[in-house]
Specification:
- The chain is an alpha+beta fold and 324 residues long.
- It contains eight helices and 17 strands.
- Helix 3 packs parallel to helix 4 and helix 4 crosses helix 8.
- The longest helix is centred in the middle third of the chain and has 31 residues.
């Protein structure tokens, strides 16, 4: 008798397991270009104060770019788009109804997916939700886009053995990057694109290079200008890469690979030349060796929008793992 009940128990587990597997298989793969955002809202609300608030927050200019480019490329759809399953990766749904609510759902109709639901009885309630929660929504969406970019990068990886050996870190770069320059404590990798190129620099500096005098931003700028003067030059030796002085860089304390880090964004130029572009620099603390691991991405793309180029560089840098 015990054997009979045990057999029934095993069958039930098998059926439940199959149902769970089947449910997972029914989830659609989400779609959407990197840094795109679908907003589902009636035309009336989109063309009024609510639409203005959404555009102000989610189409705000990206920090550190020489020209204005929006955080997200927004596509607006009418409420009737809710008739079917939504498979966009990043979605905001706005409804004017009695229910006053704000929530964020993950993988509701597809995966990976983030859907933000906002509803209110009137314009004031809806705008209030947008204004209060926009920063946290943007942070979550950007984190998801970094993961999505890293997933794409991982489909074809560069052999990074040289990086692991020299710097004791693991870094995921697309296979179309090439080693442009290697020195004892420095590596420059470059990828050619249709309108120019993107680059990744890796090197280490002592703690005192950045922490002296407690002037972190200025110390980081001096450090990267020094490295640019040594290794990044134009056709003439005097054409050295420096941080562009006319744009104040953006500075942020952050965490990468569970380590304290400093993020600096801005624009660079070749001194005495016309070449310029954007950069993103991360100084990651290596307390054990009392050094900073510096990983910087920069692009030269004079006739191309730079938001997505810099986004890929950020995704590359944030893939770093410090090896033991």
């Amino acid at each position: 008798m015990k054997a009979k009940y045990y057999l029934v128990f095993l069958v039930l587990i098998f059926i439940v397991g199959c149902e769970k597997t089947e449910d997972k298989s029914k989830i659609n793969a989400s779609v959407g270009k990197i840094n795109s955002l679908s907003i589902i809202i009636s035309d009336q609300l989109w063309n009024g104060e609510i639409g203005d608030s959404l555009r102000k927050k989610f189409a705000a200019s990206v920090d550190g770019l020489p020209q204005e480019e929006p955080l997200f490329t927004i596509n607006q759809y009418p409420i009737k788009a809710l008739d079917g399953k939504i498979i966009g990766r990043n979605v905001i749904i706005i409804k004017k109804e009695e229910k006053n609510d704000f929530s964020i759902q993950e993988n509701e109709f597809a995966a990976p997916q983030t859907i933000v639901h906002i509803s209110g009885n009137n314009v004031i309630e809806i705008v209030d939700h947008i204004e209060k929660n926009a920063d946290s929504i943007i942070k979550k969406l950007k984190q998801g886009e970094i993961r999505q970019s890293q997933k794409i990068i991982d489909t074809s990886l560069l052999d990074a053995q040289k990086i692991r050996k020299k710097f004791k870190i693991d870094l995921h770069l697309p296979s179309n990057y090439k080693y442009a320059l290697e020195k004892r404590n420095f590596i420059w990798l470059k990828k050619e694109i249709l309108s120019g190129n993107t680059s990744v620099l890796i090197y280490k500096v002592p703690f005192k290079t950045i922490l002296k005098n407690d002037d972190l931003t200025n110390n980081i700028i001096k450090m990267r200008d020094s490295i640019g003067g040594l290794y990044i030059r134009g056709k003439q030796k005097r054409n050295k890469m420096i941080t562009e002085e006319s744009y104040a860089p953006y500075f942020l304390n952050t965490i990468i690979n569970n380590r304290r880090a400093y993020e600096t964004k801005g624009t660079w130029e070749l001194k005495g030349d016309f070449m310029s572009g954007s950069f993103i620099n991360y100084a990651i603390m290596d307390r054990k060796n009392r050094k900073f691991i510096i990983i910087e991405g920069f692009c030269y793309a004079p006739s191309t929008e730079k938001r997505d180029l810099m986004h890929e560089l950020e995704a590359i840098i944030k893939s770093v793992k410090v090896l033991k």
